[in-house]
Amino acid sequence: MARTENEQFAKRVVHYCLNQADRQKSLTVQHFQQEGIARSTIYTILQRFEATKSLAYKKIPGKPATQATPKVLNAISKMFEKNPSLSVRAAARRLNIAKSTLSDIKIKKLGIKARVKQKAPKYIKQQKERAKTACRKIYKSGLRKILVLDDETYVPIDPADIPKREFFHCSDPSKVSYDDKVKQRAKFAKKYLVWLAISENGQISDPFITDQNITSQVYLTECIKRRLIPFIQGIGKNDVLFWPDLATVHYGKIVTSFLNTENISFVHKNENAPNVPQARGIERFWALCKEEYSKRKTPPKNLNGFKSLQNNCAKSGREVRKSCYGQCMEETSRNRLP
Questions:
Q1: Residue 135 contacts by C-beta under 8 Å, 6 or more apart in sequence?
Q2: What's the distance, CA 5 to chain centroid?
Q3: What are the residues facing 208 on neighbouring strands?
Q4: Residue range of the domain that includes 24
């Protein structure tokens, strides 16, 4: 128990002994043992009262608090309760106390810890309403079908150019070389474009990798005809719902006409959900692939070497990524979509 709780309990014990138990220690002990209090604790309280004739506890030794007063503690607590995003520096400036002092009070006295905010899409205009309605339709349309998503991403050729947090460890920074203290990055790093399709069951199509921009014709020839159609046929054409993102090349006339000719069920542009990376598991898959690729120390020598590495990274990412359809269902059921 806390100190204040101990003091209140001691008063209860003594009051019961003097007024209700007729100063009989045994009756007092029996009464408070029913509350789960140890026998030795009750006898200690009674013996201390007999010796001192007082219930007052000794004052806590040391200098009294000048900064962490109850008034300041209450002000800090209310400040972060009203605005959880307030920085420690700004809060310290408002209360006119040191930043380090407020940080100690916040953590040690109040148990308030800083936590990292999760990234979420920022919706503009009518995107929020459109996304929620479209995701519901996609979810219902895919209940009896296998969801297949496709997407493309840019991957830096040099693994060191992939954004990530890096640290260096030392006891004396002055003894660490400059190269170990900094992360060097090229201003305009060369990148490859990687496209692939992924199903809710973990199946992954052959990737298309190029160092050129992708057009509707390239997308149709290299991605749809050569890779997506064989991939869907392997699953079962009538059992698939194809969900492309809203990139312009994905909805070119030659692309949509070909999909209709092949009787491929796909999400039409006016029914697609804008800006919902949290519902598209392929976004998480890309992150895992890039994380795996960033572990390399040297870049590949050419495009063929990069393709080989990306195939290996895709296999590693497949083992730990979430099901695309399962993630969409989870987000929708928890109302985490916009």
A1: 273, 276, 279, 328, 331, 332, 337
A2: 39
A3: 195
A4: 3-52
| Domain identity same for 178 and 272 | yes
136, 284: one domain: yes
- Interval 243-291: pLDDT, tens: 998 999 999 999 999 999 999 999 999 999 998 888 888 888 888 888 8
Q: Pairing between strand 240-243 and 146-156?
A: parallel
Q: How far apart are CA 243 and CA 257, in angstroms?
A: 16
Tokens of 2: 């806390």
Residue 276 lies in a domain: yes
Strand 208-210 to 146-156 pairing: unpaired
Is the pLDDT confidence value at 299 over 90? no
Give the whole-angstrom CA distance, residue 192 versus residue 153: 8
Q: In this predicted model, what pLDDT tens digit does every residue of 300-313 receive, in sequence order?
A: 888 888 888 777 76
If you count DSSP H runs as helices and E runs as strands, how many of each does the chain have, helices first? 14, 4
pLDDT tens string 60-72: 777 777 788 889 9
In a domain, 88, yes or no: yes
**Per the domain annotation, does 253 fall within a domain?**
yes
Would you give the distance in Å from CA 61 to the centre of its chain?
Answer: 44
Q: What is the DSSP letter of 152?
A: E
Question: Domain count of the chain?
Answer: 3
pTM of the model: 0.66
**Are 9 and 79 members of one domain?**
no
DSSP 96: T
Which residue, 142, 249, 256, 158, is CA-closest to 201? 142
Q: State what percent of residues in the chain have pLDDT above 90.
A: 31
The answer for residues whose C-beta is within 8 angstroms of residue 9's C-beta and 6 or more apart is 1, 37, 45
Count of beta carbons in the 10 Å neighbourhood of residue 231: 20
Cα dihedral: 128, 133, 137, 138 (round 10): 0
